Amino acid sequence: MIKFKLQDIVARKMHLLAFLGMLILGLQTVSAQEGISLEESKKAALKHSNAIKNGLLTIEKAKAFKQEMLANYFPTIEATALGLYGPDDIISPIPGILPNGIDNLYSASAMATEVIYAGGKIRNSNALADLQTETSKIRAEQAVDSVLLVTEQKFWQLVQLQEQQKVLETNEAYLNELLKQQEDLLEAGLIAKNQLLQVKVNRSELLLNKSKLENLRKLALLDFSLYVGVAYSPEMRAMADFENIAPPELKYTEPDLNLTENSNYQLLEKSISASQLRTKMAKADLLPSLAVGFSAFEFGSFDNTLASQFSGLAFGTLSIPISDWWGGGKQRVRQEKIQQEISQNNREDGIDQLKVAITQSWYDLLDAHEQIQYALENKALAEENLKVYRDNYDSGLSNLTDLLDAQAMAQKAQSNLINAYTNYQNKEITFLYRTDQLDTPAIEGLK
To answer: Within 13 Å of residue 52, how many CA atoms lie on the same side as its CB?
Structure first.
């Protein structure tokens, strides 16, 4: 085996130390023009999101519906006017009564009606409008949380690809140095050509993966830019730091399965209330309704041939839907009662699913942190293994194949650590999302 000069060995030791020092645990700082932070991404996404805009519009729509229902508490007023003209007399002359015929007429009337009792339908309609407004507000808040969740997921996907690029760049530099060494040795006639080809094959595979990864990063960056509403630039980087990730037990408490403050639970409760109100409204259609009103009208002719006449009257109406007691009205009530039972069953299933999802997200978060610890340990072992094999190779105690295997193992360990870090970030945002603990940047018009 080849024995290298002392200065060559020292130089390669220094290169190895530099290689190990380049292993990435976080992103390097980039200029503001080329980088975007997670906080900046969230603010941009909240301003840009059409889902949030639609959520706010839905609240306005619900408020308009509430005003519509409130109008039912006030009288309904109608006014009509009619004018007639005929080339011949509309009313022929009547001797002794109407000496001249009438060829024009007009009439005007107004009527006001106030519902006194409608079986509680008006009251329940207003309660349903209030419920719809409350539901719209909850859904609008959920839209904000959903945008924050997706923004973080896309952000950390971009970070993951960037970090994987750096792993490949570091290992490319290592293989380049090893390739240069093999070229020198081959030129000196100290090794066979197949050893040089081994390094070239590994390096070519790495370069191919590097090219694929760059294309994936650009695609992820375009997707991210379109979602958060920032200008796309191939040079833009997501700025993040993986250091000092504390165990979840130190940051959060185990989730409480009392769901009263959970937005999804609140929506389930609202669905039950809405179903109950619809049942009451269906029952109201079977009850009598009472209304009172006043009507005034005036008629005459434009040329005063017929003197103007004015009259007014008050009235009351009582409507009893007798046929609905055994017909369609009764069946509508039955349908609403069945739907109310369905809503209750869906509520129970929904609560169970929420509890399972929240508990799962907690254990997923704990597991993700454990994966980081194992990945750190494996990376350290793989680096030490590579160092040992490099020392042995430089000393002529191991072959090139073993060294390349050790390099590939170290590269995989580095890659796994990056995956473990980004996986933890995704599990953390999912946990916060499911437990309604997301922090929303201060944006005007949002919660």
So the answer is: 23
Q: Are strands 35-37 and 237-239 parallel, antiparallel or unpaired?
A: parallel
What string of H, E and C letters represents the secondary structure of the chain? CCCCCHHHHHHHHHHHHHHHHCCCCECCCCCCCCEEEHHHHHHHHHHHCHHHHHHHHHHHHHHHHHHHHHHHHCCEEEEEEEEEECCCCCECCECCCECCCECEEEEEEEEEEEEEECCCHHHHHHHHHHHHHHHHHHHHHHHHHHHHHHHHHHHHHHHHHHHHHHHHHHHHHHHHHHHHHHHHHHHCCCCCHHHHHHHHHHHHHHHHHHHHHHHHHHHHHHHHHHHHCCCCCCCCEEECECCCCCCHHHHCCCCCCCCCCCHHHHHHHHHHHHHHHHHHHHHHCCCCEEEEEEEEEEEECCCCCCCCEEEEEEEEEEECCHHHHCCHHHHHHHHHHHHHHHHHHHHHHHHHHHHHHHHHHHHHHHHHHHHHHHHHHHHHHHHHHHHHHHHHHHCCCCCHHHHHHHHHHHHHHHHHHHHHHHHHHHHHHHHHHHCCCCCCCCCCCCC
Dist. CA 206–CA 198, nearest whole Å: 13
CB 276 within 8 A of CB 336: no
Strand 309-319 to 104-117 pairing: unpaired
CB within 8 A of 302, min separation 6: which ones? 83, 104, 106
Distance in angstroms (rounded) separating the CA atoms of residues 337 and 343: 10
Q: Quick check: 22 pLDDT over 80?
A: no
Domains of the chain from N-terminus onward: 6-74+144-287+326-434 (1.20.1600.10)
pTM of the model as a whole: 0.82
How confident is the model over 143-190, as pLDDT tens digits? 999 999 999 999 999 999 999 999 999 999 999 999 999 999 888 888
Q: Which of 153, 162, 71, 235 is nearest to 415 (CA)?
A: 162
